[in-house]
Give the backbone structure.
Amino acid sequence: MNLQTGSSSRNPFSSLINLLMVAGVLFIVYLLVTGFVKLIYFSYVPPVLLALILVINYKVALQYLSDLGATFQKDVLTGIVWVLFAVFCYPFLLLWLLIKALFYRKIEQIANLGNQQGTRFNISDQPDNRAFGEFADYEEIDTKKNTPTHRDKKA
């Protein structure tokens, strides 16, 4: 009769093997992350990212610098912290600005597409045939105040 509540394996080293497998996976993840950080810090990737940001939407970089200046005017210590963050984590900041620039570009493309077609951008899939400012049709439903609900009915 087997009275074990855990695994049915009688191998005393099964938990040790599992721990070694987890340690191996974590070591592989560590190597991948450090490789990515080395690649992004010590290569030609950051200047390329900056050039892409400026080509796609230069306003994103100007807005970031404007926000940094506003942070300095509001609180000098916070501004210094953000500048140190920008200096030490510049590749990640550039990645964030690139994603932001691509997002703004996509929004502008969608807005321009709507303007070219002469329609407003409508999120719903249903066509909206009403003119702007027109009310939707509705129907009033008569309800009685003391109508029993399904809980009040006895079976």
Observations:
- The first helix runs from residue 14 to 41.
- The mean pLDDT is 81.
- Residues 110 and 121 are 8 Å apart (CA to CA).
